[in-house]
Automatic annotation (TrEMBL):
The keyword Oxidoreductase applies. Pfam families: GFO_IDH_MocA (PF01408), GFO_IDH_MocA_C3 (PF22725). Residues 24-137 form the Gfo/Idh/MocA-like oxidoreductase N-terminal domain. Transmembrane segments: none annotated. Residues 177-257 form the GFO/IDH/MocA-like oxidoreductase domain. This is Gfo/Idh/MocA family oxidoreductase. Keywords: Oxidoreductase. It comes from Streptosporangium longisporum. Gene3D superfamilies: Dihydrodipicolinate Reductase, domain 2, NAD(P)-binding Rossmann-like Domain.
Length: 307
């Protein structure tokens, strides 16, 4: 029996009505991802308001801030003073440094993946979050799409023997995503958190992971799961495809369950992400996709790198 994933947009999670003032969020970063996603998502409200932007280039920060009436902060500390929460759209090394400072200032954190450029820095961020007792949330984009949540709901009821998966695109060949850290570190650090997170959630906790290949070209992961299942993951950012390809196939006694992101609209993710982050900030309780989750994914990446 083959069980496909639901059609894009099916079983969309309800975004609860919002009452009260929006969460004031400061944005660190003014690059392509900050412009394309973070700034407009946070400014769309009603759960959040883009309060301020800081970037190392003031002109770039102003370009991001002005369309939304946000302030331009002169320093990260000035940004912290203007907001309740801080969102990050910067390279992992910059995030790891400034997230610790933001947590120590008592600000909630909306964190990108990976948590840091290496395991040590990721652990420092997670420790700072735990020590300060602030809310944190990872922007693991696909986790906020209704089709992903329906897939994980169905997977929870399956006995899985094995799984195959891939996350492939050609964005590292040129364009705005071909940035320094991505070209240096490759797909394992950039795409790996997404796929490892989904395999860990859908198949069962990953207990061991091995890698072969070159992360800057193509890397293959073999994961062992606590329930005895084995999964494989193919990762590359240097294959010229017409669009990104993310696919997971689960196999077991009941047949096959497939999750494929072809055709899904990522715009459906942002209202859910915004609402859940704002609710977490207001309640003071983080969800499952917090900094501790980011640290676990970084531990798996480190294990793969060391294999």
């Amino acid at each position: 029996m083959t069980t496909p994933s639901p059609a894009p947009g099916a079983s969309a999670p309800a975004v609860p009505a919002w009452s009260g003032p929006p969460v004031e969020v400061g944005l660190i970063g003014a690059g392509p991802w900050a412009r394309a996603m973070h700034a407009r998502m946070l400014a769309a409200g009603p759960q959040t308001r883009l309060a301020a932007v800081w970037a190392r280039r003031p002109a770039a920060a102003r370009e991001v801030a002005e369309p939304y009436g946000a302030a331009v902060a002169g320093t990260p500390e000035e940004l912290f003073e203007r907001c309740e929460a801080v969102a990050f759209a910067v390279p992992p090394a910059v995030q790891a440094e400034l997230a610790v400072r933001a947590a120590r200032a008592g600000r909630a954190l909306l964190l990108d993946k990976p948590l840091g450029p290496d395991l040590a820095s990721a652990r420092t961020v997670a420790d700072a979050v735990a020590s300060a007792g602030v809310v944190s949330q990872m922007v693991l984009t696909k986790r906020y799409h209704p089709a992903t949540r329906e897939f994980l709901r169905r997977a929870a009821g399956l006995e899985v023997t094995g799984a195959r998966s891939c996350y492939l695109h050609g964005a590292f060949l040129g364009g705005e995503s071909a940035t320094g850290w991505r070209l240096e570190q490759g797909a394992l650090l950039d795409l790996g958190p997404h796929l490892l997170d989904l395999l860990d959630a859908a198949v069962g906790p990953v207990t061991a992971v091995r890698a072969t290949g070159d992360p800057r070209r193509w890397v293959e992961l073999t994961c062992e799961h606590g329930n005895g299942a084995v999964s494989q993951a193919s990762l590359s950012g240097t294959v010229p495809l017409p669009g990104a390809r993310t696919r997971i196939e689960l196999f077991g006694p009941a047949g096959e369950l497939v999750f494929d992101t072809a055709g899904i609209d990522h715009e459906e993710c942002w209202p859910v992400l915004r609402a859940e982050f704002a609710a977490a900030v207001r309640s003071g309780r983080a969800g499952e996709l917090d900094a501790a989750r980011g640290l676990r994914l970084q531990e798996l990446i480190e294990a793969a790198t060391a294999s």
